[in-house]
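Quarterly update from the structural biology core.
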Amino acid sequence: MKRSDLMQELRNKGVRVCGTTKEFGIGGKGIWISAESTPNLFNYYGGTYGYHAYIDPKLEKLVSKNGWYFEWYDAGTMMVWKD
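Predicted structure, tokenized:
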């Protein structure tokens, strides 16, 4: 899935997509997400899923089946990268 399509799909699921990783200032061709804006979908401190900080399992599945993966930047910021 193209980055722009995934960005729109994430927005449709209620994710606050801020822009690209280049716009964030770290370069690359990833997606920048405000994880702190949606603690029901991303929660670094308040919950776990397996051994990792919580990411909604449905979002994780959507992203991974389309060849991307989530990576925490810090407790309030999530990046999505192409596999």
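The mean pLDDT is 93.
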